[in-house]
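Project outcomes to date are best conveyed with an example. Our students and postdoctoral researchers have been running inverse folding experiments weekly, and each run begins with a structure described purely in tokens. The record below, which covers 101 residues, was selected by the lab manager from last quarter's runs and is presented without edits.
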């Protein structure tokens, strides 16, 4: 298993600079914003507004750069591109079949 790192949620590029990314910082590999809910330690799809930090204002676009002052870049193993929740993957497959994709 991969060691936990601070990395781009989309492609896995590792953030090795000291400190946290700013709102304008993006992944050097794929260009995705880095200061996003999907890279935050407080992000949790199972709670209200998908954030465990009750002090934070709700953010609608979880993959877009934001100004949240409680952002904490999470260290986690990179699961790989396309790796996700098996239930979500199954639901997406059902939708593809339904719409003929």
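After processing, the design step wrote out the following sequence:
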């Amino acid at each position: 298993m991969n060691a936990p790192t601070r990395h781009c949620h989309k492609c896995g590029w590792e953030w090795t600079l000291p400190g946290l990314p700013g709102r304008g910082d993006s992944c050097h590999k794929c260009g995705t914003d880095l200061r996003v809910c999907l890279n935050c330690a407080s992000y949790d799809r199972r709670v209200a507004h998908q954030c465990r930090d009750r002090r934070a204002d709700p953010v609608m676009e979880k993959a877009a750069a934001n100004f949240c002052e409680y952002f904490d870049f999470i260290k986690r193993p990179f699961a790989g591109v396309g790796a996700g929740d098996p239930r979500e993957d199954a639901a997406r497959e059902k939708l593809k079949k339904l719409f003929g994709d």
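Residues 1-101 form one domain. The mean pLDDT is 88. The training component of this project remains on track.
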